[in-house]
Every structure is written in structure tokens, then in C-alpha cells.
Specification:
Helix content is about 55%, strand content about 20%. It contains 8 helices and 5 strands; from the N terminus they run αβααβαβββαααα. The longest helix has about 40 residues.
Length: about 250
């Protein structure tokens, strides 16, 4: 009769405690980024709801988010040579948490970014304008690294989030380029790469033309503050009636 294999020896108590602490630290590390995504998407959703309910025009078409998987984080740590410490990873890798805002027009991209960046609790760490200066492959988008405050039981902590803003045309091109890039494992054939670059130029021209048509039809989009004042202005007859009622009440 064959002897049963012996069960593995347990780790020493100090090693077990170290592993437990590591698990807790990693859970907290990822929680911070999930909370940062929630805070950032809430800010965008509030703006989107305001434009839908109050203003005549909504510049935000779609909002999405993503959190890097642990395996993706480890791969990037190795690829960039980042020290395997949570503080180093937090400081060196900025795209663990991401929020993407898709807008109708290029002017909307800058408008939404201005509205978000003007919020006092956001800290802008870095901005890369790939719309004004596209990447060599034709990629266009507005990227911003922002610190979003989150509040845990231990107090306030900043969560670093990569914010991407782009038009529908930019998003369509980027999605196609991403699929092709991974299909060829990064080694995209030269002819196909040239076609992608040409398609990016076409998408850029489409954005320009759609922006022109939008302005021809609607004119310049009114400022939200001015528009709100105009929308809630009472008719003169109603104002006069309210004044008469106030005078009558004052005389009684």
C-alpha cells in the first residue's frame, strides 16, 4: 500500500502574519482606486444630469471606467522597473484607475474638462493634449492625471485617476486601433499601420466638419450660467403681479 503524501508544512507564524498584512495592504490599495473611480464618475454624472435637466444642450455622450487587474499592474511594474512597493507604484503608475468621457464635439471635450478641472477638490497632476498634438500613429484624446479626495475610516486620502476625454470619432478609432494592436501583439504590419494613420486623419476631418455643422445649426453654445439665468427669468406680467400682491400685503 502506497503511503499517503504528507501535507505541506505550515508557514511559520511570522510569515503568516506578513502575508496577512500584505493582503490587507493590497486590498486597501485597490480600494483607494475603486473609490477614486466612483468619485470621478459621480462628478461627471452630476454634470451630465445637470445638462440634461437644466440646459438645452448636453455635451456628454457616454461615460465609462476601468480598473487595472492585479496581473496588469504587476506586468507594468516589471516593464517600467518600478520598485515593488505600494508607495512607488502609486507614484509611478498613473493609469491604474481610469475614467473615459466621450463627447459629441471637440469643443465639448475642452468644455467638460474645464468644468471638471475648476472643481476645487480636484488636483490636476498632469495634462497631455493629444488633440492639439496627436501621437505619431494618429491617436487623439485629451488625457489628464487627477488626484481625487476620498474619505476612509482613517481619514482623507488622494486617489490618482487617469481622465480621458475624446469625441465619438476619436473613440471609434482608438477602439479599432486597440483591437488591432492586441491581435498582432503590438507588431502591427506597416501597411495596416499606415491605413490606421490615414483613418485617424479622416476621423479628425470628420470632427472638424461636424463641429462646423453644429455651429451652423445651433450657433455658439450658450454659457451655462447665462443660460440658466435666461431660462428662469420670470415674464414681466408675472413680476408685476407679484409686486402688486406684495404691496397689497404690506398695506393690510
Amino acid at each position: 500500500m502506497m503511503p499517503e503524501p504528507s501535507s505541506p508544512l505550515p508557514f511559520p507564524a511570522d510569515v503568516q502574519e506578513t502575508l496577512r498584512q500584505l493582503r490587507t495592504q493590497f486590498s486597501r490599495f485597490m480600494l483607494t482606486y475603486r473609490a477614486g473611480i466612483n468619485e470621478m464618475t459621480t462628478k461627471v454624472d452630476v454634470l451630465r444630469e445637470e445638462f440634461l435637466q437644466v440646459h438645452r444642450y448636453n455635451p456628454i455622450e457616454h461615460v465609462s471606467s476601468r480598473l487595472k487587474s492585479p496581473d496588469s499592474i504587476v506586468d507594468k511594474v516589471i516593464r517600467k522597473g518600478v520598485a515593488p512597493r505600494f508607495d512607488a507604484i502609486r507614484e509611478e503608475i498613473h493609469d491604474i484607475a481610469g475614467v473615459r468621457v466621450t463627447c459629441s464635439f471637440v469643443s465639448d471635450v475642452y468644455r467638460v474638462f474645464d468644468l471638471l478641472s475648476s472643481q476645487g477638490d480636484l488636483t490636476i497632476v498632469e495634462v497631455k493634449d493629444y488633440i492639439a498634438k496627436p501621437k505619431p500613429n494618429g491617436y487623439r484624446s485629451l488625457h489628464a492625471i487627477v488626484d481625487v479626495p476620498i474619505f476612509l475610516s482613517t481619514g482623507e486620502e488622494p486617489a490618482r485617476v487617469e481622465l480621458q476625454l475624446r469625441t465619438i470619432a476619436m473613440d471609434f478609432w482608438a477602439s479599432l486601433e486597440h483591437k488591432i494592436f492586441y491581435k498582432y501583439d503590438g507588431d502591427v504590419p506597416e501597411g495596416l499601420q499606415a491605413s490606421l494613420t490615414e483613418a485617424a486623419t479622416t476621423a479628425s476631418r470628420l470632427d472638424d466638419e461636424m463641429e462646423r455643422l453644429h455651429r451652423d445649426v445651433h450657433g455658439d453654445t450658450p454659457d451655462p450660467a447665462e443660460q440658466e439665468q435666461h431660462e428662469f427669468e420670470l415674464p414681466a406680467a408675472v413680476v408685476q403681479r407679484l409686486l402688486r400682491l406684495r404691496e397689497q400685503n404690506a398695506g393690510t
